Amino acid sequence: MRGGGAGAGLSERLRGAGGLTVEERWAVALLDPEAPTPPDLTSWNGSDPGQRFAVYRNNVVVSLVESLAQTFPVTCELVGEEFFRAMGREFVRARPPRSTLLARYGEGFAEFVDGFPPAASVPYLADMARLEMHCLAALHAADADPAAPQVLEAALREPECLPALRLRLHPSLRCLRSEFAVFSLWDAHRGELEISQVNPLAAECGWILRSGLEVRLLPMCAGDCDFVEALARGNSFGEAAEAAAGDREFDLGRCLATLLRWGMVTSVNGIK
Amino acid sequence: MVASGETGLPVAAGVGLKPEHFEQVIGKAPALGFVEIHAENYLVAGGPMHHYLERVCARYPLSVHGVGLSIGGEEPLDRGHLQALRGLLDRYQPAVFSEHLAWSSHGGIFFNDLLPLPYTRRTLERLCEHIEQVQDALGRRILLENPSTYVEFSGSSYSEAEFIGELVKRSGCGLLLDVNNAYISCINHGRDLDEFIAALPLHAVGEIHLAGFHRDRDSLGAPLLIDSHGSAVDRAVWQAYESVLERTGPLSTLIEWDNDIPPFETLCAEAARAQGYLSACAVREA
């Protein structure tokens, strides 16, 4: 940011009679359909500038809702296009983007859906939005190569050293725990599972990751999420296994095999 | 292909690169002069965007088009965004970087649209200051694109062409002449297109954009054209393009199609049509 002096002076000079700059008036009117059309607009033929200004108002909201629809396709399918777009317009007006990078737009959407009364009849909608936001983050996360097989073999040759190892995981890997069957619902909406086989009220946990160029959703157990989150916090292999031990379903061998299969272990430190 | 004196981008027709077409661009390697990307879509850490762009760049010259700098804005430029753009340009070394005569952010909010500004001495000075900062930060001369607009400001003291002429003269930036935008604005504001084009600093044009619009009407029933980038280039815009080329000679030309994205073949056919005009123009010049 520029120092206050020059910047403030410039914006002072730009202020019109009403004390607001052109952009300040536009910024309010673009997101608030009730706000008056900014003054000082004209048209060559005397047609209504307000109707012309409405093109901008429409472009802003429609393009941002479209960006949400692209990020949350299954969330959109669950409630239908019309409902989703109406909800999207409310979100856009309440939480317009703070960044020019629309690949990040949608943070906070799940929380908004949670508090959006008309969506209350679809209790798993917010978690589906959480899942799809994780998908977007995983898609654009940094690249990282899997650790070389020799590194892992060396680690496994000395089992007594395993607990002290520090594993670094792929930047795309993230966890979601839901009270609802959002992973199965997602599969069903992608045509990979029969919807009649899904009980939406069954709790599910899982991983979201990118392998190669593709985002994958893997239903896992709660312990698998505990394990991954412990490693991500910087805990050792042993500490992570301990963190996951509370879940009886947790199987350390299976968890590790799944991580390796998808190339999610990118380095191993602490090998003697 | 001859490199344009202005930019280093080949004087040929190119297309806007869309993720929907990544595989085809790489797999089919069609005859395109260059590809153009929207910078902000590639300001992500990793994944398919960079994977494909690296492969496309190995085959085609690249133009990077920014849509988020808000150069026409009242507020100071976003330094972080400039730095991120510099990183992208350093990584991919495009032949040209362009941005818009518009604003898109205010008060920390990004509106995702190219919004108009009054043409006054103050806005001219502010834009020149911003362009200078952008050119310094990016270490290169930029092209600035003429806007498509739906309203005019009663406070404007320059015509659009005069304003652009002053900008180019004072800041040293080049002009990205969007012929579709020029046509839209002339229809929307009752201006004569030939006069408008003739009044622009045509010597500074480094690239041309062509795109489709859709038709609406204002409150009096007069045509109001909306810059939708969602259809084929209109016949009137092809005509305007041909008459621009008669004045400027052949120039790097981009087909933009950002919404309702068509099959890749349709996009390439539009580029081939532009290439036809370029070749005819080059023959006439020879």
UniProtKB/TrEMBL annotation, chain B:
It comes from the Bacteria. InterPro entries: MbnB/TglH/ChrH, Xyl_isomerase-like_sf. Pfam families: MbnB_TglH_ChrH. SUPFAM superfamilies: Xylose isomerase-like (SSF51658). It comes from Microbulbifer rhizosphaerae. This is UPF0276 protein FHS09_004128. The lineage of its organism: Bacteria, Pseudomonadati, Pseudomonadota, Gammaproteobacteria, Cellvibrionales. Belongs to the UPF0276 family.
